Structures are given as C-alpha cells and as structure tokens.
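Thread: "does anyone have the structure for this chain?"

Original post by V.I.:
We have the sequence but no experimental structure in hand. Need at least a predicted one for the grant figures.
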Amino acid sequence: MPQQDEHNTGLQLPLVEEFYSIQGEGYNTGKAAYFIRIGGCDIGCSWCDTKYSWNASLHPLVDVETITGHVTQSGADSVVVTGGEPLMWNLDPLCNILKREGVKTYLETSGAYPLTGIWDWITLSPKKGSPPLEGIWKKAHELKVIIEDGTDFATAEEHSRKVSADCLLFLQPEWSRFNDIIAAITEYVKNNTKWNVSLQAHKFMHIP
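Reply from O.Q.:
Generated one for you, tokens below.
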C-alpha cells in the first residue's frame, strides 16, 4: 500500500484532476476552493461517483511543486484535497508548500489511513468495511455520513459518539437515492437536532 512504501515521499502524487470551483458539501458549502483529486482507493463504495479515481496507476505522477503552482496561479486562498482516498499518500510535502503560501487546507477522507499533512479543516466520512483509524476521530472538524438507506442512521450515531464534542455532524443522502431517502433524513434531523443535512449543492448547480 502506498503509505507503507518507503518510496512514497509525497513529492509526487497521482493527480486525477484539479480545478477551481465552489465547495458543495457540508459546513463549507458555497465557499470557493481549489480542488485537488488524488488517485487511489481500495475501499470500493458501490455508490462512489468518482470510481475513475480508484486505480492510481491510471493517473500521472505530478510534482507537488507543479500542483501548488497551479493553486497559486488560480488565486484561490483554500484547497480541498480529496480522492479516491488521499491519505493513501504522504501529504506532508503538499501541505507544507500550501501553508508556506498562506493557503488554507481542507481534507476529505474516510480516515482509513494514517493522517499526514497540516489541515485547517478535516472532513471525516467513514465508509463501510474500512473504519477510520482511532487517531483521527478527535481531529475531525466535521463528520459526514452518507445515508443510503434507513439502516445507516444507527451507524451514523455510532460514529458521532467517537468524534469530539465540537465536531459538526452531517447526514448526506447518497446521490442516486436522493429522492428516496431525503424525506427520511429530513425527519431524522428534525428529531435529532445535533445533526445537519448536507446536500451536494454542486450537483444541483451543475458545476464540478
């Protein structure tokens, strides 16, 4: 696995795509950010909308200096690092450069791999079959649980007991089942007000 490979210095990353857009999920919805999508994921969620990112070998290894240069050129003041599962790679070099440039760093992760990098915001989104490592629960600023069916609410509650007291809690409908599940999520949040609803606003806006 990449994070156990002595050659995984993080100086190069398998870049799936990069673009400047608007954050569409969770607490930071509506904020501008530069997105860096890194290849590689062995979790394999059936409903994943970025399956093209799973095989890291299909994506070119790009120097982090090149990637961060694109961030600077874009004028963005914050970066979202996502995947795939970005923590399969050493993210220290990428974050070190971004922080040196004064860029805020946001991470989207399942938490299934050791945490690397320096983060202003960590969105933890646990996935079935690949639970987060113990060390990341209390570091998450935001817990985002994907709701596919009614059984996922109990799992969400289990996750919520592991994060810190000030971690924000979000339930997000699995996109392909939005019409089927959104009413149940709405009712659940009304009856359990510690939770918030997260919608994939970028999909409604028809933007990346």
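V.I.: this helps a lot. The beta strands are 12-22, 32-38, 61-63, 78-82, 104-109, 121-124, 142-147, 168-173, 195-197.
O.Q.: and Residues 2-204 form a domain with the TIM Barrel fold (CATH 3.20.20.70).
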